[in-house]
């Protein structure tokens, strides 16, 4: 294995309201902010740069696909956390009254790729998924 640093990702996504977005990503998810303007905000998303761009006509549009008996938004983003981080985030979101698209649960239990997952939307309707694997070596298990 290489000693090279894992690249960070950058994601830009549309939002309907910058103030609601700022509140959600900063106060609910715990992200810090970077640069911003009247049309966009940079967020430190667990060390990655995600940028909310004001674009009300594009925000929150997504179809769904069936996965493990749930309708998963086809367009979503999120993170793979460590198991304990995922549990802490799930508890914090539940305490804050987040309305989940898919409640926190264990997917593919007892199978290759077993994972904890949860889906919810930001105020603009953008879907987020946070997951964790008991065994990170199974992230790409078939």
TrEMBL record:
Judging by the UniProt lineage, the source's domain of life is Bacteria
Q: Which CDD domains match?
A: VOC_like
Q: Which organism is it from?
A: Fodinibius salsisoli
> What's the protein called, per UniProt?
VOC family protein
> Residue ranges of the VOC domain?
7-133
Query: What InterPro entries does the record point to?
Result: Glyas_Bleomycin-R_OHBP_Dase, Glyas_Fos-R_dOase_dom, VOC_core
């Amino acid at each position: 294995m290489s000693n090279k640093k894992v690249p960070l990702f950058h994601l830009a996504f549309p939002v309907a309201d910058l103030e609601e977005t700022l509140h959600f990503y900063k106060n609910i998810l715990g992200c810090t902010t970077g640069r911003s303007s009247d049309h966009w905000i940079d967020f430190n998303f667990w060390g990655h740069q995600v940028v909310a761009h004001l674009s009300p006509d594009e925000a929150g549009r997504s179809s769904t696909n069936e996965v493990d008996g749930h309708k998963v938004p086809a367009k979503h983003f999120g993170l793979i956390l460590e198991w304990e981080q995922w549990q802490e985030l799930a508890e914090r979101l539940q305490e804050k009254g987040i309305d989940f698209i898919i409640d926190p649960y264990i997917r593919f239990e007892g199978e290759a790729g077993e994972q904890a997952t949860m889906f919810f939307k930001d105020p603009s309707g953008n879907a987020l998924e946070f997951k964790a694997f008991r065994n990170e070596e199974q992230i790409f298990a078939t």
